[in-house]
Design brief:
- By secondary structure, the chain is of the alpha/beta class.
- The protein has a domain of about 180 residues: Rossmann fold (3-Layer(aba) Sandwich), CATH 3.40.50.
- Helices cover about 30% and strands about 25% of the residues.
- It is built from 9 helices and 12 strands.
- The strands form 3 sheets. Strands 6-9-10-3-11-12 form a 6-stranded mixed beta sheet, with helices on both faces. The protein has a 4-stranded antiparallel beta sheet with strand order 2-1-4-5, with helices on one face. Strands 7-8 form a two-stranded antiparallel sheet.
- Helix 5 runs parallel beside helix 6.
- The chain is globular, with a radius of gyration of 22 Å.
- The structure holds adenosine-5'-triphosphate (ATP) and magnesium ion.
- Adenosine-5'-triphosphate binds next to strand 2 and helix 1.
- Keywords: ATP-binding, Nucleotide-binding.
- It holds the Pfam family ABC_tran.
- One of its GO terms (molecular function) is ATP binding.
């Protein structure tokens, strides 16, 4: 393969993890995991329940410190003391359980913690009009046409809430957007909508970390794929190195799935559960 003209690997990643490990007491949550996040790219982290996906992003988000390996932001070793520092370095994280105040209007939630004010001294107050207008404009820019930015966040669908969180991160100037299973609780259509905004964030030049256990969702938008199993990395591929079929096969556990199929086939259905020999419905 020729790499003579452009060497994309030569640019400094926004975020890079190299051989990172994390232990909770005796529990190995992550071991020797590496991940590259570039501007304008989506890096997907795939894995089953308990694989270490949330642990990985908690390190990037400044919530946990890693025990081994290196974590750098724009080429500099990162020593984040807390999530606020991560945010100051341009890393915005949307957690698995979205932190929203359900009764707050959408615009209020959009500006939560960064409210603009107007007036001075005793006349200083929240600039509500600006917040309303900006929220509407920013959501529209992402293609989200909310009926009413005054409606409580709790009345939005799960997909809309994810989209608002993404639009918020883009507006406040995030360089890296970290999303923990944004499509996990969503149906097919809403997942599609959320993935569109994930792609929009990428097109706006952000580096995105997309956590999912769905290889189809990952492959729709992903540039890089890191596969985790019980804390260890069992695959790391760029898009041109792996097909959707292969990604799906690896995520399904490949050979493990064949073993499971055999086990399930072998087990005969007991007669009292409706297997052969159950003579109709008992009354
Ligand atoms: N604070 C903690 N203390 C102790 N063990 C933890 C803690 N957080 C996570 N673990 C353990 O670390 C492992 C990885 O957990 P993690 O939440 O990162 O998995 P995950 O891939 O996000 O799973 P899921 O798909 O269910 O969200 C699990 O075995 C989990 O029980
Ligand atoms: Mg998780």
């Amino acid at each position: 393969m020729s790499t003579d003209h452009v060497a994309p690997e030569a640019r400094t990643p926004l975020v890079e993890l190299d051989g990172v490990s994390k232990y909770y007491g005796n529990i190995r949550a992550l071991e020797d995991v590496s991940l590259v996040v570039n501007a304008g790219e989506i890096s997907c982290v795939l894995g089953d329940n308990g694989a270490g996906k949330s642990t990985l992003i908690k390190i990037i988000a400044g919530l946990h410190r890693h025990d081994a390996g290196s974590f750098s932001i724009e080429g500099e070793e990162a020593k984040l003391a807390n999530p606020r520092e991560a945010l100051d370095r341009g890393i915005a994280t949307v957690y698995q359980n979205l932190a929203v105040v359900p009764l707050m209007p959408v615009w209020r939630n959009f500006f939560l913690g960064s409210e603009p004010t107007k007036g001075k001294g005793p006349f200083k107050r929240l600039d509500v009009d600006l917040m309303r207008r900006t929220t509407r404009e920013e959501l529209l820019r992402m293609g989200i046409d909310l009926r009413d930015v005054d409606q409580p966040v709790g009345t939005l669908s799960g997909g809309e809430r994810q989209c608002v969180a993404i639009a918020r991160a883009v507006y406040f100037g995030a360089k890296v957007l970290v999303l923990d299973e944004p499509t996990a609780a969503l149906g097919v259509k809403q997942s599609g909508v959320v993935l569109k905004y994930v792609a929009a964030a990428r097109d706006a030049g952000l580096g995105v970390v997309l956590i999912t256990h769905n290889p189809h969702h990952a492959y729709l938008v992903g540039d890089r794929f890191v596969l985790l199993k019980r804390g260890a990395m069992f695959g790391s591929h760029t898009r041109d190195e792996i097909s959707l079929d292969e990604l799906t096969r690896q995520m399904a556990g490949g050979n493990e799935l064949d073993d499971l199929r055999h086990e399930l086939e072998r087990a005969p259905v007991p007669t009292h559960l409706g297997g052969h020999g159950a003579g109709g419905v008992e009354k």
